[in-house]
Specification:
6 helices; 48% helix
Amino acid sequence: MASAITIMSRNGNDENLTSKRENRSEENASAPAQKQTAVMKKQLTTRANSYEFFSKKTPPSTNDSTRLILVAVAFPENIGTLILIAGKIDAKKSFIFTGEQSNFKSKKIQRAATSNAYMSVPFEFCSEKEWPTKIPKEYQLVAVETVSHANKCLSNCSPTKICLVVGNESFGITEWSLQQCKTAMYLPMPGRIKSLNVSQAATFVMFERQRRQCYS
């Protein structure tokens, strides 16, 4: 009789251990989902705070006429990022990207740009030899490139209308497109890392240009 009770007790313990393990497994499985939900809530809160913050600020009087030419870009995410930045600086003029639009997945561009900017910022694709014909003559063509004749960022640029030309992520601006530009600029980099992603470089120049126009 004693041995039977012992067996039942052991079986009961085994069942309890199995139940606890299953509960822990379920908790571990749900942890990533809970973490992702928390991150999404934080992002939404941050975005709401950002809109609330800027809604209380008097917007600068700007009608940014900056144009951007992105030559021989390789990654659709960079196109999307620059469309997004155009929406943030309230750029009114079209951005031009050379290459065949069919070579880029529009979903990747839209994901990086966000739907709002993707639908509201004017942009187009064309061949490399075609882009100079799309820029009005009053615009100053400025290459953002590390070439020997480049000046510091915006140091010798017209304060009115400029067209920034940036190049491929790995090889920079092609020689032909570089020859179309009146001048070139570079971004000073005192740190140990001496290169920037193309979308980062263009973003810095566009925001610095707007800062000089609206806040100096």
